[in-house]
Amino acid sequence: MENAIKKYWPIFVLPTLAAFCVGFVYPFVQGVYLSFCKFTTIKKAHFIGLKNYAYALTDSSFWQSFEFTTLFMIISTVLINVLAFAIALALTSKIKGSNAFRTVFFMPNLIGGIVLGYIWQILLNCVLSLLEQPLLALDAKYGFIGLVILMCWQQIGYMMIIYIAGLQSIPEDYLEAAKIDGATDRQILFKIKIPNVMPSITICSFLTITNGFKLFDQNLALTGGEPAHASEMMALNIYNTFYSRSGAQWKGYGQAKAVVFCIMVILISLVQLKFTKSREVQQ
Amino acid sequence: MENNGNKIAKTVLFVFLCILAVGWMYPIFMILTNSLKLEKYISTNTVFTLPSGESFAGLANYVEALTSQGFAQAFGYSIIITVTSVVLILLCTSMCAWYVTRVNSLLSKICYGLFVFSMVVPFQMLMFTLASTADRLNLDTPYNICIIYLGFGAGLAVFMFTGFMKSIPLEIEEAAMIDGCNPLQIFFMIILPILKPTLISVCILETMWLWNDYLLPYLVLDRKKYTTIPILIQYFKGSYGHVAMGPMMACIMMTVLPIIIIYISLQKYIINGVLAGAVKG
User: Fold this and answer.
1) ipTM higher than threshold 0.90
2) pTM
């Protein structure tokens, strides 16, 4: 069986593998190499060692975007998960029309980041100007709040779906047994429901963390990093280093920042993997 | 007594959820109402009012967006890119995933490891080199950008397919082999039909990603000739000076409406697909 399939590898594996090399492996390897080079195009690259990294790690705008991203990630993760869980609880409490509510709350998730960003930019700027406050692009504080609102709108529905699935998989017997033992609603929530949806909580937390950390489209469309890069997140900072500066050194700096960013994302994923593994052992 | 209290609590919760749902839909409703207004009635003061007799513009903004703003073209390119890429990804990665699951060799181990790794790497890491690679290989049109997408989207798809394929019993395939099927026949006549639920899930996840993707086509496509919908909308916003708000909002509505219609008609599949992707990823 195995040997028979093996002979067919050019048909089964080769198309995907070839495209994968073009679309991922080669650009990735070249990207790592170029982070040690000074270049404007790939052909005109020469090796300069760690200078790009030295610049990237001392660039204040990069660290400012790191702070902005981290703060955004923490606040949006907490808000999205708490609100999504609350809505999921409400919708699983045998309420009328729960399917219709689920449909409505999930919908923004299907709309792309650029379109979402633009819709909210129009809406929030109108609200701000009616309140006689500075517009989104003029005050980083409102830019931050706007991004949080936008991400809540987009992601609560998604996380809600995962939490509903988790809550529905709790065996009915547990809840009935607890009720017969005289547990209050509060006790049922904290002693039975939350411990039983722990897997969903882990999944959702990491999804929101990585989504927040890698956010680009929404950031570009809502504030574009204005004013003066103050609402710029890491992905947008890298993009701007690459494409909105002229000069031979910037592309190398951008590539070095991208490698640093990539390592951070990989670290988050490793932590996630560890969490998921340790949970599997318990079960 | 206790029952009564419970009932009141439920009603309060229901009313609250209704208000929340209306608020949830408001941003889209606002775009819809404004896209039906005449240009001079779209301003910060009037944006929250409904179109009235004098400000109502009918479908003029939509006609304008379709004819002079290049929406129809961008829509067409978005469809071409999404359909070709999704078909290619589904076919190639499911075949690849079957090989990786059934053949226990170094090649399949390396492939699988790399695929999983590629799911983690952020796009910013590759954007410059990927764009120049695509440029050099002439993969910069809507008709062949699907090869780039196959490479870049392979990770998630292979991961989801292998997850499911591990649960298909080997006996079915062995029986088919004894009956004289070659691996290609086994794959297309036996594995692919069993795979249908996962195919639908992967199809939905990849479609959502491709349809909304902005940065990859923006950097890879030959921008003077081709735009997709997200690129077109970003252009609107980026063009300084006067932005025609009416046609712009009409564009947004025409982008959002197909998504809503497809979502409502295929809701069950979409939610299951998203769930499968979340649990695996």
Assistant:
1) no
2) 0.87
